[in-house]
Automatic annotation (TrEMBL), chains A, B:
Organism: Roseomonas haemaphysalidis
InterPro entries: Ala_racemase_N (IPR001608), D-amino_acid_metab_enzyme (IPR051466), D-ser_dehydrat-like_dom (IPR026956), D-ser_dehydrat-like_sf (IPR042208), PLP-binding_barrel (IPR029066)
SMART domains to which the protein is assigned, alphabetical: D-ser_dehydrat
Coiled coil region boundaries: none
Signal peptide start-end: none
Keywords from the UniProt entry: Lyase
Highest taxon, organism lineage: Bacteria
Entry's family note: Belongs to the DSD1 family.
Keyword field contains Hydrolase: no
Record-given protein name: Alanine racemase
Sequence ranges assigned to domain D-serine dehydratase-like in this UniProt record: 239-334
Length: 351, 351
């Protein structure tokens, strides 16, 4: 069976490209003495997480307990959950994870520390990293004093180990926060072993932006249209493409492909909706200007040559991480040869 | 176990509300002599498809063969695929479906008829409905002459049966197209048994808009924020809500909930991104103004009372159909009691 005979729409991962992307980011981290801790949210595949570790990554990052459970089941033994974990049921699951792998968890509130403390009462130490906001206005404390107070609370809680600080994404504001926080933490006798930053688009500028010693990145493994738009990758570095088929040509300047938001997700480019929903490698002047769940509407106005019904196209999605989350499996290829389907084991693990 | 003890984020379907929504749309269709053929894309649950049929629906609508296969496996025997089916592999799957259930399929090109003809060569007749465009600029022929030509081609093809016309959504333009097409079809000796329209927001105005005799609607079974914004439902008619938890309160006017685009999908309201990503029933003045994959950023500026970390909220998503497609299972409730989880059997069936 070859790739051209697979039914569409189908996400196809070029393992050669992914491998090169993994190697390149590892080389960057190694050159700058930064520990690479890849975020598995992009691929959600144990096999690629293992490749990242084999190439030198120091543990992995997950967003949810359910992802960490899948990765622990696959034999990965050092996991950072870079997301606030809240509530009794989640504390019990965290305790079960901490009993079998090394766990480190994000905290940005006293309630978060209470959840971790409850988990740690089962007898397995949990590392705590305080999240601070570098201007992203998501989770994370907004003042150094709040970070120091949580660090003290964590260090004083039986079963918890204060590991350091984290933010997302790394920026100049991260550096300013760290510069203010370090002396205040040290004045309390607290030394952060980990200063963790993240974000693929500017990852290779980490050392210029802030003195972090850990890098959490996900998207770099596949890359996507946003990474290309940010100048962080070329189309040839995009490891995941969605293979689609033209199923309708109602007008000369319009094609319909068999993929919409159920296949690509509905994430829009930073520049806005008018930038469309993906890049067609074979027709770079075409524009997927609208999507519904199963249809992609392609404007061919700017195309000299136009595709026919039945023609197969390869699309680089705007944002690749939610694409992995939509599909039960991905096809894998290497050097043009189909290697088989791989289950997206951590797909849909929102809990 | 009660609903409040389920881990979040979790989609919860109130079967009482869904049942009432099904009954109301059926009553409308019955009152106007229109055959109701619900689109299962919204719930993707065989159990609800069966309830729709038990209440009077005449068959179901699916978008993809994979959805139809799930529904046929569940014993549903009259299926319309309202989507162009193209290619040899899909022809074989369609043939297998036609061998066991009554199948009708959308066509908007000669290539589409060729696919259906190939399927029909296995010996089981397939109904053909020609899709026309009512201004939506998606799939569907744009001229009456093209529709008539395809109808003739279908009628002349062994194993295919010309069944009629379809469009999406129903509009005044649908009426104009039908008015022009009917005499031209009849002049060719072709009588369309089916004139099929669709779209939940204006469904109960179908009889005022165009002389269709079949109504394809999906969203009405659950409703969502878009349906409420369109004046087609109230919050009390929204059968699916996503239960979430506040996991961070970094600032007085900002809460973070444990759900983002992996839970709600990233569909934006017709009015644009600034309208946010869902409606929080307990805090109607709060605004989910940004989402990332696992975070929902909630602006509390307009709220007199503000939620605390750990508090559970119910969110009506912007667009409910892709929510069903993100989750392996939904929790079901009736009269406030948790009835158990149901697998979203047709989730992810993009093929």
């Amino acid at each position: 069976m070859d790739i051209a005979s697979l039914e569409t729409p189908v996400p196809v991962v070029d393992l050669g490209i992914a491998e090169a992307n993994i190697a390149r980011m590892q080389a960057y981290a190694d050159a700058h003495g930064i520990a690479l801790r890849p975020h598995i949210k992009t691929h959600k595949l144990p096999a690629l997480a293992h490749r990242q570790l084999e190439q030198g990554a120091r543990g992995i990052t997950c967003q949810k307990l359910g992802e960490a459970e899948v990765m622990a089941d696959a034999g990965i033994d050092d996991i950072f959950i870079s997301y606030p974990i809240i509530g009794e049921a989640k504390a019990e699951r965290l305790a079960a994870l901490a009993a079998r792998v090394k766990m480190r968890v994000n905290v940005d509130s006293s309630a978060g520390i209470e959840t971790l403390a409850r988990a740690a009462r089962h007898g397995h130490e949990i590392g705590v990293v305080i999240e601070f906001d570098s201007g992203n206005k998501r989770s994370g404390v907004v003042t150094v004093d709040a970070a120091v107070a949580l660090a003290k609370q964590a260090a004083a809680t039986p079963g918890l180990r204060f590991d350091g600080l984290m933010t997302y994404p790394t920026s100049a504001a991260s550096a300013a926060f760290i510069a203010e926080a370090l002396p205040k933490l040290r004045a309390e006798g607290l030394e952060p072993a980990v200063l963790s930053g993240g974000g693929s688009p500017k990852a290779v500028h980490t050392h210029e932006m802030a003195p972090v010693n850990e890098l959490r990145v996900g998207t770099y493994v596949y890359n996507d249209r946003m990474m290309v738009a940010a100048g962080a990758a070329g189309w040839e570095d995009c490891a995941l493409t969605v293979h689609v088929t033209v199923i309708s040509r109602p007008e000369d300047d319009r094609a319909i492909i068999d993929a919409g938001s159920k296949t690509f997700a509905a994430d829009i480019m930073p520049g806005g909706q008018q930038l469309g929903y993906g890049h067609i490698l074979e027709y770079p002047d075409a524009r997927i200007d609208r999507i519904s769940e199963e249809h992609g509407m392609v404007d061919l106005t700017a195309c000299a040559k136009k595709p026919a019904i039945g023609e197969r196209l390869r699309v680089v999605p705007n944002h690749v991480c939610p694409v992995s989350n939509l599909h039960d499996r991905v096809a894998t290829v290497k050097d043009g040869a189909f290697l088989g389907f791989v289950d997206v084991a951590a797909r849909g693990r929102t809990l």
